Sequence to fold (513 residues):
Amino acid sequence: MPTETTTPTETTTLTSTDPRTGARVPTDLTATTAEQADVVVRAADAAFAAASSHDRLWRAGLLDALADALDAHRDELVAAADRETGLGTTRLEGEVGRSSFQFRLFAEAVREGGYLEATIDRGGPTPLGPAPEIRRMLVPVGTVAVFGSSNFPFAFSVAGGDTASALAGGNAVVLKAHSSHLETSARSYAALAEAAAAYGAPDGLIGIVYGTEAGRVLVAHPLIQAVGFTGSLNGGRALMDVIDQRPRPIPFYGELSSLNPLVITPGAAAVRGEAIADGLYGSFTLGSGQFCTKPGLAFVPTGADGDAVVARIAAKAGEAGASVLLNGRIATSFDEIRDRLIATGSVEVLAQGVADAGAGFTAAPTVLSTTADTLTADVAEEAFGPLLVIVRYDDDAQVVRALDVVPDSLTATVHSEASETDAVAALVREFAPRVGRIVFDGYPTGLRVSWAQHHGGPWPATNSQHSSVGVSAVRRFLRPLAYQDAPEVLLPPELRDDHTDIPRRIDGRLQLG
Fold:
């Protein structure tokens, strides 16, 4: 992570950069000092206590109000994000829609109530003798720090899923704005804060800080109870190091690094190789390859059918021009990793698109090739940008052996035909312990936001078993609390006998309310 330093009396004016040109524009934002961050966190913690007096339906209404605010401010948000990210208005308009949808989805989940996991075991005789009554449900953890990501200025940033899920759980949120889109973050925060105030939420329930040092202060603050982070592996490690030094460590939920292997079977290459080549090219270049779910490694069978797939991908990449990257750090890292992979001598450069000599941050699509028998960990490295490594294989056994050098990922994808079910079943058994989502005959980019979605995976994809997308993402910011033989008047409403409007498990039987 880049280093930014401030002293208690020093203010650092922050600049916004247009990635299309590299031009830096001063903003009216300044880096948050440690003292200012402390004020923001303490305000959030006080707001959390005040908001705790409201019920679930109030909280669901708040989430709907925040969604409405994003829709109402869509035009100005998109304009700011386009200036700061170069992602284009079409993509960004869709992303604002995704963000408002997330807030509404969590509002629906809060009203439904199943996320609370309300469970009641009545007291009385049991096979083990007399037993007390136990009632348990999930409760909010407190004030949560959320770090915005660079590649999704709305859906994984200030107005993103971490914010929505933390608020849905009943927590307060303090946001760390990403340096790649400071004005977008400030405008998003203003829209949310204004809507929250109009709804009647306590002041400070949503807060924000700016600057790298403020992020460190945030995760070290004793009132922060959990952290949501989407970013680089190195950035995540730096924050985890800070948390490890706390007298009372807290959960850190990081989405960090993912290569997302994709396998094309011989049958799929023969029957629909052209369509797969086009789809794969579109997936690894989508958003200039800056998706955490980008397929960075593709296993393609040897032989004429596989050759045709590879040739088509390479031809499309070779004819393509450079596309805009989000910031200079990503551009520099992409160039370094691409050159490092080539320098290993174990890959062949099949295609490189037309470079852009302009002043902005760009990268041309690059396609490299190696074989399953020669694939090494040095080559199986995530390059955040439009780069694909094609791995040629003779049989499934080679794929299985090669997977041992591929880091665990968010996703794995298989393209196959119905006649190859047994072989695909074997691949699925290999993928299951290595990833969080297996995609069949599709592409991992374009992540659905839904009740069943899981966006996570084993290390280094993430450092937890939880999802950062979909309704189950709220589970990160909740903790179990059990009540033994408690007077009913002291129980949360959802655990009282007369509360029957949510799913509850009573004496082992699920009751849907």
